[in-house]
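check this one:
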Amino acid sequence: QINGSDERNAWERTISIRKGTGQYAKDFSTKNVPTVKKSNWRQQHEDFINAIRSAKQCTIAIKEGRPLPPPPPPSINPDYIQCPYCNRRFNETAAERHINFCKDQASRRVFNPAQKAAKLASRAQNKAQVNSKKEPTVTSAVGTLLQNRTMDSSKDRSAKAGASPESTSGIKVKKSPSKKD
């Protein structure tokens, strides 16, 4: 049971504790209480309902074979803070860190159009140099191997024209290389 005397005793205890610190009850007013943000549950609820409706429309369109409807527009969270440099949105603690970082990055960037055009031109020139690769040179050993392969393939074609019983059965016969004296 809580009655008036218990509440008074509790109050007197807090005053007696604060007397030693030099602070009294009226010093601890609502100034020190952190402000509670206004809840935006109604907007979140409406966004949720709209998302469900658009999902239903998509499933109906898929079943009927129609083209999909456009997605719902993204909702902007009013609790987020927009970065003035990159226009992205963050919560309070992340925004404090990000805005300082983005400010430093923006100061390092070059926004001079002449310098930007020069950079683009040098990039295009580098790409042109990379794309103009030289054809690989064929050494004499590689050249003879290629010639031998083409000759072997032409012999195989002429042998298939004769249609020997081995070739019709689908079994490939591996020929041993002949030695020349």
